[in-house]
């Protein structure tokens, strides 16, 4: 899963001084983008395009990996064997998404170790949504419905991203995200339609807590998203934050009626003139607080990732030692 908030740049990079040759290459690159061509790893690309992609794809990869943590919290407490099997499959998918994405980012010349180091040093971001806790079982269904649902909205346009390795990774990821969304919705539907009052109350409580952070997954409003224009021009981003957010609200408002839950927004109402659902103001101060490291679980998430990396050091060392031995054997043969 992923958010548009991924394209938050630390500071706008300076434009380097260009030679005539670079200017020509850049003009050719821009023409290819304008013609709707896909850019491959070996093609020439402007440094800024490369850096923007490394930042976005690596942040996306980190989000997939960190996103395994809130759900992992419920594997041992899933209510039935079926729900446990589904949850395990979903979490494994997210791990796989992280791996495809690290691999896609590596094609741009940044190693996985560099990316992981940046995450562990607190320099690289991941989606803020994963800094919220999973407090009851209905949180798991709600994450599938809303968080993976928002991820799909964000990610489907990325299958047409101008950088081909990223676009290709997204095709497979989107298919799996669709399963994630559906299993979440199904889990909530069972609780709402066949469950007890207490179970229905759990669903409503989870939806109340996840609704607004899910809307924040689309990133800041268009007017306050300075990197968006360049990303759109380069064909990295196909739809704006606000456009995607509106599509998501429209879809969820109707799905909420099917479920029988109330979305926690008194301003949510159908606007026949616009042909969309109106919704209330988003608390952007909260978004920036969580992005800035002060969400409920930021420290816990990062600590869990660092511990997993440290605990796995022996596996990486053993795999490298084995690879060296194999190579030596092959050379000797
Ligand atoms: Fe994912
Ligand atoms: Fe997912």
Description:
The protein starts with 19 loop residues before the first helix and ends with a helix. A hairpin with a 4-residue loop joins strand 1 and strand 2. It is globular and about 70 Å long. The model has no long low-confidence stretch (mean pLDDT 93). By secondary structure, it is an all-alpha fold. Helix 6 runs parallel beside helix 8 (197-216) and helix 7 (164-194) runs antiparallel to helix 8. 65% of the residues lie in helices and 2% in strands. The longest helix has 31 residues, at 164-194. It has helices at 20-34, 47-66, 68-72, 81-106, 112-120, 137-155, 164-194, 197-216, 228-233, 241-259, 284-294, 298-311, 313-332, and strands at residues 269-271, 276-278. The structure holds fe (ii) ion (2 copies). One fe (ii) ion binds next to helix 6 and helix 7.
Give the tags.
333 residues; 2% strand; mainly alpha; 13 helices; 2 strands; binds fe (ii) ion
Q: What is the tally of helical segments?
A: 13
Number of strands: 2
Distance between the ends: 46 Å
The run of helices and strands is HHHHHHHHHHEEHHH
State the helicity in percent bands. 55-70%
Apparent shape? globular
Radius of gyration: 21 Å
The bound ligands are: fe (ii) ion
Low-confidence stretches: none
Mean pLDDT: 93
Major sheet size, sense and barrel closure: 2 strands, antiparallel
Q: What share of the residues does DSSP label as strand, in percent?
A: under 5%
Q: Output the structural class.
A: mainly alpha
Taking strands numbered 1, 2, ... along the chain, how are they ordered across the largest sheet?
1-2
């Amino acid at each position: 899963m992923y958010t548009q908030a991924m394209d938050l740049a630390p500071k706008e990079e300076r434009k380097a001084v260009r030679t005539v040759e670079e200017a020509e290459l850049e003009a050719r690159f821009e023409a290819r983008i304008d013609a709707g061509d896909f850019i491959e790893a070996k093609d020439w690309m402007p440094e800024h395009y490369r850096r923007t992609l490394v930042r976005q794809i690596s942040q996306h990869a980190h989000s997939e990996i960190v996103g395994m943590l809130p759900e992992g919290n419920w594997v041992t407490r899933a209510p039935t064997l079926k729900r446990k099997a589904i949850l395990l499959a979903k979490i494994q998918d997210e791990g796989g998404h992280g791996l495809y994405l690290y691999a896609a980012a590596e094609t741009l010349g940044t190693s996985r170790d560099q990316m992981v180091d940046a995450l562990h040093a607190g320099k690289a971001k991941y989606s803020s949504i994963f800094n919220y806790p999973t407090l009851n079982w209905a949180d798991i269904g709600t994450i599938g419905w809303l968080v993976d649902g928002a991820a799909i909205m964000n990610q489907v346009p990325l299958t047409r991203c101008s950088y081909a390795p990223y676009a290709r990774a997204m095709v497979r990821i989107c298919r799996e995200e669709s399963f994630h969304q559906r299993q979440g919705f199904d889990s909530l539907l069972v609780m709402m339609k066949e469950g007890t009052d207490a179970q229905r109350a759990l669903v409503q409580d989870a939806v109340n807590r996840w609704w607004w952070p899910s809307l924040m997954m689309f990133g800041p409003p268009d007017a306050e998203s300075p990197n968006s224009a360049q990303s759109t021009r380069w064909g990295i981003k196909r739809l704006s934050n606000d456009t995607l957010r509106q599509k998501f609200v429209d879809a969820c408002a109707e799905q909420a009626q099917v479920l029988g839950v109330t979305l926690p927004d008194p301003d949510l109402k159908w606007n026949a003139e616009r042909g969309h659902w109106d919704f209330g103001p988003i608390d952007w101060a909260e978004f920036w607080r969580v992005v800035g490291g002060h969400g409920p679980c930021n420290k816990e998430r990062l600590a869990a990732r660092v511990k997993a990396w440290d605990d796995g050091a022996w596996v990486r060392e053993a795999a490298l030692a084995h690879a060296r031995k194999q190579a030596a054997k092959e050379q000797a043969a």
